[in-house]
Write a structure and sequence with these properties.
Helices cover about 25% and strands about 25% of the residues. By secondary structure, it is an alpha+beta fold. Strand 7 and strand 8 form a beta hairpin. The N terminus is likely disordered.
């Protein structure tokens, strides 16, 4: 990678990480839709995690040796804990891509009970980790709406700066949790023939009514983004224990 491309890539990484937290601050409240499918059996008895329980459920070195977990924008006003809000459908064009756009930022169209966002890294790999606790039925709705959107969404623009995303593609869902969806796409940082397009991978795993959303950017343009499987496994074990405990 050339020095100029490298600098542009680092700027894009920083901008995207900040937008994932700060850009959510003006989002409107979401509303539940009773027509959505609701979970059954053990999912109905799963705990709705409070903000404190969610913070306690963030993976650490005890769960995954060598992992380093840091706040996003530590020391900044309002972004340090990566607070997530319900996302407005009107900020995405076309609107059918709204669930995809929201998932990229770790959000959805529903108001969370609590949320935590961290940068988790191990062995030189960094992943944006978002844990969001929803009301009992809303977690199911988020995954269902995202899965439906991925059937027809291929490209979109989002946010006040009209950030452009393309090559949206669903991939095999994760085996962890009660349900999950995974997809990849590209962020166009600089349009044009010699523009910079950053591959992104996103995975949303539902544990009861809590979602763990993992987002990884590639180390270099043209190289696929990879979400560490050991991170997903470790975080999934912690969340499964937290939401399905009977205590």
């Amino acid at each position: 990678m050339s020095r100029s491309i490298g600098r542009r890539h680092m700027v894009a990484l920083a901008s995207l990480a900040v937008c994932a937290t700060a850009c959510g601050g003006g989002h409107a409240e979401g509303a539940s839709t009773p027509s959505a499918t609701v979970g059954r059996g053990a999912e109905r008895s799963a705990r709705v995690l409070t903000q404190r329980q969610l913070e306690d459920a963030v993976v650490d070195a005890h769960d995954l040796p060598g992992v380093q977990v840091e706040e996003v924008g530590a020391g900044t006003q309002g972004a340090g804990n990566g607070v997530i809000h319900a996302a407005r459908r009107t900020t995405t064009e076309p609107s059918l891509c709204a669930p995809v756009s929201a998932a990229v930022d770790g959000a959805s169209g529903y108001s969370p009970v609590g949320s935590v966002q961290r940068v988790a890294g191990a062995k030189g790999r960094s992943t944006l980790l978002t844990l969001v606790s929803y009301r009992s039925a809303d977690g199911v709705r988020v995954i269902n709406e995202l899965r439906t959107a991925l059937k027809s969404c291929t490209a979109y623009t989002a946010g006040p700066m009209k950030a452009a995303y393309e090559d949206v593609e669903a991939v095999d869902g994760p085996p962890q949790g009660d349900d999950g969806v995974a997809f990849r796409l590209k962020l166009t940082v600089e349009p044009g023939e010699d523009g910079l397009k950053l591959p992104i991978s996103v995975m949303a795993v539902r544990h009861g009514s809590t979602l763990a959303i993992y987002k990884a950017l590639s180390d270099a343009p043209g190289t696929s983004a990879s979400i560490p499987s050991d991170l997903v496994d470790a975080q999934s074990r912690v969340l499964d224990a937290a939401v399905h405990t009977t205590r």
